[in-house]
Amino acid sequence: MLSPSASPRFVNPLMVWTDFALKTGEMFMSSGAVIQIRTQRMASAGLTPSAADLAEFHLMGKEKFEAANESTAAMADELGNKQFMLMNSVVQHWVGSVAALFALAASTTPAQAMTHHSAFVDSATRSAATVSQLTSASALAAQRGLHPIHAKATSNAKRLAPVVVKVARAPIAAA
Protein backbone atom coordinates (compact mmCIF):
# COMPACT_ATOMS: atom_id res chain seq x y z
CA MET A 1 0.00 0.00 0.00
CA LEU A 2 1.25 3.49 -0.84
CA SER A 3 1.95 5.88 1.97
CA PRO A 4 0.26 9.31 1.79
CA SER A 5 3.55 10.88 0.66
CA ALA A 6 4.20 8.28 -2.03
CA SER A 7 2.47 8.57 -5.35
CA PRO A 8 2.38 6.45 -8.47
CA ARG A 9 4.29 7.75 -11.44
CA PHE A 10 1.15 8.45 -13.43
CA VAL A 11 -1.81 9.91 -11.58
CA ASN A 12 -5.10 10.82 -13.17
CA PRO A 13 -5.11 14.63 -12.78
CA LEU A 14 -8.90 14.80 -13.18
CA MET A 15 -9.42 12.55 -10.16
CA VAL A 16 -6.94 14.52 -8.06
CA TRP A 17 -8.51 17.87 -9.03
CA THR A 18 -12.00 16.44 -8.34
CA ASP A 19 -10.92 15.29 -4.88
CA PHE A 20 -9.34 18.70 -4.33
CA ALA A 21 -12.60 20.45 -5.27
CA LEU A 22 -14.67 18.23 -2.96
CA LYS A 23 -12.26 18.74 -0.05
CA THR A 24 -12.26 22.50 -0.70
CA GLY A 25 -16.06 22.57 -0.57
CA GLU A 26 -16.07 20.58 2.66
CA MET A 27 -13.44 22.92 4.11
CA PHE A 28 -15.52 25.99 3.16
CA MET A 29 -18.61 24.53 4.82
CA SER A 30 -16.65 23.69 7.97
CA SER A 31 -14.93 27.09 7.99
CA GLY A 32 -18.26 28.88 7.70
CA ALA A 33 -19.62 27.00 10.70
CA VAL A 34 -16.48 27.67 12.75
CA ILE A 35 -16.47 31.37 11.83
CA GLN A 36 -20.12 31.68 12.86
CA ILE A 37 -19.55 29.95 16.22
CA ARG A 38 -16.41 31.90 17.03
CA THR A 39 -17.91 35.24 15.97
CA GLN A 40 -20.92 34.61 18.20
CA ARG A 41 -18.57 33.68 21.00
CA MET A 42 -16.58 36.92 20.55
CA ALA A 43 -19.76 38.99 20.46
CA SER A 44 -21.17 37.37 23.57
CA ALA A 45 -17.83 37.69 25.41
CA GLY A 46 -17.80 41.43 24.80
CA LEU A 47 -15.10 43.43 26.55
CA THR A 48 -14.67 40.93 29.38
CA PRO A 49 -13.93 37.52 27.85
CA SER A 50 -13.56 34.56 30.18
CA ALA A 51 -10.37 32.51 30.43
CA ALA A 52 -11.95 29.85 28.20
CA ASP A 53 -12.85 32.53 25.62
CA LEU A 54 -9.31 33.91 25.67
CA ALA A 55 -7.88 30.43 25.24
CA GLU A 56 -10.18 29.81 22.25
CA PHE A 57 -9.28 33.17 20.68
CA HIS A 58 -5.57 32.43 21.12
CA LEU A 59 -6.04 28.94 19.64
CA MET A 60 -7.82 30.48 16.65
CA GLY A 61 -4.76 32.51 15.62
CA LYS A 62 -2.29 29.75 16.46
CA GLU A 63 -4.18 27.18 14.36
CA LYS A 64 -4.30 29.46 11.33
CA PHE A 65 -0.56 30.07 11.53
CA GLU A 66 0.24 26.37 11.99
CA ALA A 67 -2.07 25.26 9.17
CA ALA A 68 -0.59 27.85 6.79
CA ASN A 69 2.94 26.72 7.65
CA GLU A 70 2.06 23.05 7.21
CA SER A 71 0.33 23.80 3.93
CA THR A 72 3.28 25.77 2.56
CA ALA A 73 5.73 23.07 3.64
CA ALA A 74 3.63 20.31 2.06
CA MET A 75 3.37 22.15 -1.27
CA ALA A 76 7.07 23.04 -1.27
CA ASP A 77 7.99 19.43 -0.50
CA GLU A 78 5.74 18.09 -3.25
CA LEU A 79 7.00 20.58 -5.83
CA GLY A 80 10.61 20.24 -4.72
CA ASN A 81 10.50 16.48 -5.11
CA LYS A 82 8.97 16.64 -8.56
CA GLN A 83 10.64 19.74 -9.99
CA PHE A 84 14.10 18.30 -10.61
CA MET A 85 12.73 15.06 -12.02
CA LEU A 86 10.31 16.81 -14.36
CA MET A 87 12.79 19.46 -15.52
CA ASN A 88 15.39 16.78 -16.20
CA SER A 89 12.82 14.82 -18.18
CA VAL A 90 11.70 17.90 -20.13
CA VAL A 91 15.27 18.76 -21.14
CA GLN A 92 16.01 15.15 -22.15
CA HIS A 93 12.87 14.97 -24.29
CA TRP A 94 13.55 18.36 -25.86
CA VAL A 95 17.11 17.36 -26.79
CA GLY A 96 15.83 14.00 -28.05
CA SER A 97 13.14 15.71 -30.15
CA VAL A 98 15.63 18.12 -31.69
CA ALA A 99 18.06 15.29 -32.48
CA ALA A 100 15.25 13.21 -34.00
CA LEU A 101 14.05 16.18 -36.06
CA PHE A 102 17.55 16.84 -37.44
CA ALA A 103 17.99 13.14 -38.18
CA LEU A 104 14.66 13.15 -40.01
CA ALA A 105 15.69 16.21 -42.01
CA ALA A 106 19.02 14.61 -42.91
CA SER A 107 17.45 11.36 -44.11
CA THR A 108 18.58 10.35 -47.58
CA THR A 109 16.43 7.29 -48.20
CA PRO A 110 12.76 6.54 -47.56
CA ALA A 111 13.77 3.78 -45.11
CA GLN A 112 15.87 6.24 -43.10
CA ALA A 113 13.05 8.78 -43.18
CA MET A 114 10.58 6.21 -41.82
CA THR A 115 12.99 5.19 -39.06
CA HIS A 116 13.75 8.79 -38.09
CA HIS A 117 10.06 9.73 -38.31
CA SER A 118 9.22 6.93 -35.88
CA ALA A 119 11.92 8.15 -33.47
CA PHE A 120 10.58 11.70 -33.71
CA VAL A 121 7.00 10.57 -32.99
CA ASP A 122 8.18 8.51 -30.02
CA SER A 123 10.03 11.53 -28.64
CA ALA A 124 6.97 13.75 -29.07
CA THR A 125 4.84 11.13 -27.29
CA ARG A 126 7.23 11.08 -24.34
CA SER A 127 7.05 14.87 -24.20
CA ALA A 128 3.24 14.70 -23.96
CA ALA A 129 3.54 12.19 -21.11
CA THR A 130 5.85 14.60 -19.30
CA VAL A 131 3.26 17.37 -19.62
CA SER A 132 0.70 15.01 -18.09
CA GLN A 133 3.09 14.37 -15.20
CA LEU A 134 3.46 18.12 -14.72
CA THR A 135 -0.32 18.49 -14.49
CA SER A 136 -0.46 15.63 -12.01
CA ALA A 137 2.34 17.18 -9.95
CA SER A 138 0.46 20.48 -9.77
CA ALA A 139 -2.74 18.73 -8.71
CA LEU A 140 -0.94 16.71 -6.04
CA ALA A 141 0.80 19.83 -4.71
CA ALA A 142 -2.53 21.63 -4.40
CA GLN A 143 -4.09 18.59 -2.73
CA ARG A 144 -1.23 18.22 -0.24
CA GLY A 145 -1.32 21.95 0.49
CA LEU A 146 -5.04 21.83 1.24
CA HIS A 147 -4.80 18.86 3.60
CA PRO A 148 -3.60 20.67 6.78
CA ILE A 149 -6.09 23.53 6.34
CA HIS A 150 -8.94 21.10 5.64
CA ALA A 151 -7.98 19.01 8.69
CA LYS A 152 -8.02 22.04 11.03
CA ALA A 153 -11.28 23.41 9.65
CA THR A 154 -13.17 20.12 9.84
CA SER A 155 -11.84 19.21 13.29
CA ASN A 156 -12.79 22.67 14.60
CA ALA A 157 -16.28 22.34 13.14
CA LYS A 158 -16.73 19.03 14.95
CA ARG A 159 -15.22 20.31 18.20
CA LEU A 160 -17.15 23.58 18.29
CA ALA A 161 -20.47 22.31 16.97
CA PRO A 162 -23.21 22.91 19.52
CA VAL A 163 -24.53 19.78 21.14
CA VAL A 164 -28.00 19.15 19.80
CA VAL A 165 -30.32 17.59 22.35
CA LYS A 166 -33.30 15.81 20.88
CA VAL A 167 -36.47 16.45 22.79
CA ALA A 168 -38.84 13.50 22.91
CA ARG A 169 -42.31 14.49 21.86
CA ALA A 170 -45.35 13.07 23.50
CA PRO A 171 -47.55 11.11 21.12
CA ILE A 172 -50.54 12.99 19.85
CA ALA A 173 -53.72 11.54 21.29
CA ALA A 174 -56.31 10.42 18.81
CA ALA A 175 -59.51 12.40 18.94
How does this model look, in words?
This protein has 175 residues and is mainly α. It is built from three helices and no strands. It has one domain. Helix 1 runs parallel beside helix 3 and helix 2 runs antiparallel to helix 3. The longest helix has 55 residues.
Pick out its properties.
single chain; 175 residues; mainly alpha; 3 helices; 79% helix; 0% strand; elongated; disordered N terminus
Provide the fold topology:
Elements: H1 13-45, H2 51-105, H3 110-160
Helix pairs in contact: 1-3, 2-3
Oligomer: single chain
The succession of helices and strands, N to C, reads HHH
The tally of domains stands at: 1
Q: Major sheet, described briefly?
A: none
Shape designation: elongated
- Give start-end ranges of low-pLDDT stretches: 1-9
Please tally the helical runs, counting DSSP H or I stretches of 4 or more residues.
Answer: 3
Helical content (DSSP H or I, runs of 4+): over 70%
Give the number of DSSP strands.
0
Radius of gyration based on Cα positions: 27 Å
Mean pLDDT: 83
Q: Strand content of the residues, in percent?
A: under 5%
Given helix and strand content, the structural type is: mainly alpha
Distance between the termini: 64 Å
Structure, briefly:
The chain contains three helices and no strands. It is mainly alpha-helical.
